[in-house]
Each structure stands twice: as C-alpha cells, then as structure tokens.
Amino acid sequence: MNEVDFITRVHQSTKRDYVGRVTSADKAHCAEVAGRFDVEYWDGERQYGYGGYRYDGRWHDVAAAMVRHYRLTPETRILDVGCGKAFLLYEFTKLLPGVEVRGIDISAYGIANAKEEVRDRLDHGSAAKLPYADNSFDFIVSLNTLHNLFNYDLDAALREMTRVARGPQYLTVESYRNEREKANLLYWQLTCRAFMTPKEWRWAFAQAGYAGDYGFIYFE
What we know:
Elements: H1 8-12, H2 18-23, H3 27-34, H4 39-43, H5 60-70, E1 77-81, H6 87-95, E2 100-105, H7 108-112, E3 122-124, E4 139-143, H8 151-164, E5 169-174, H9 179-188, H10 198-208, E6 213-217
Parallel strand pairs: 1-2, 1-4, 2-3, 4-5, 5-6
Helix pairs in contact: 5-6, 8-10
C-alpha cells in the first residue's frame, strides 16, 4: 500500500473562494441539494456542485499516468467505483483500444449523461455493495468518491473493492493536514461525510483490509 499522487494537478487547476462558498448562499440548503447527486449537482449552478461537468479532456493525463504506473494493457479489466460521467473510463478506452471497462455510480443522472462511448458499460449502484463477482477486475480505481460515505458504508466499500479485485487498486479522497486545510474543506465541501486526516484514513484502510494504493487531495 503506497501513497501515489495522480490528480493534484487537476484538483489545483480549479480556483476556489472558500469564504464565499459559505457567505454567498445558504450552504446547508446547497449541501442538501448536492447530496441527491442529481442534475443540480452535475450541471446546475456552481453553488450546488460542479456548475456544469462537461468533457474537456482533463482526465487524459491522469489515465495515461495510471496506464504507465500500473502497466495497464488492452487485456486489463478496469472498474471505476464512483465513475460519475465516466470521463476517466473513456480516456482508458482511447489509450488502450479494446480494453474492457466498467463503472458504477450512485447517481442515475450522472450515468444517464455519461460519455456516450462508454455509457452502456456503467451500472447504477452503491460502492458499499458492488454487483460483481469476486476477483473479477485487474485494476480498480476510485477518485473523490469514498469520502462521501458514512464510516459504515466506507468500510463496506473498501472491503468490496478488495473483494472484486485481482490486481492493483487506487483511490483518492479528500483530507486535511492542518486547521487551515480543515476549515477550507469544511467551507468548500458539499457531500463529504468522512472528514479525516491522512493518519485516520490509513487507519480506516487497515481496518477494512484495503491494501491498494491511495492519494489525498487537500484544500490549501
């Protein structure tokens, strides 16, 4: 289990007004709306989530780095847990023609509006109960998803990822290293349920028996 960073560059490309997030709108209401993971979260106003999450190629370099790091091939069977609109999976199919990809997400809207080229390979469901057989994927990835779960579902999701894996796994979650990053995370987040330091996250991984790689994003 190693800490590997694939997405800080993508994360830092977005400028954030942390104080404005809690002063310009009813933050509690916005969080309630965002937590439905419906149209408002993906394609509504910025106060409810992405403010319009459209394909722009930002995940190409992330996918390419994972292909290199994990030596993925067209024969690799890939699962994205919390795939959203499946832009990352689409990049894998471009980099590895013929690769078999699968994605699962709690958002029916996200799947219905996912990249058309991979939409038929997506499932609506929970990370805490994956509808796949044991040892059925060669590589499992989960980006910015598991921190949205309460601890009991987080533990189940980590165990499920381990159950269906027969190869490397990688996940990223939101975290904080100091009080400033903690405050910024609390100000900015809309759907986070697991607020933990890196040390706490590593403890949660160990408790669930998760032995894959991981990365953190911070709100500096």
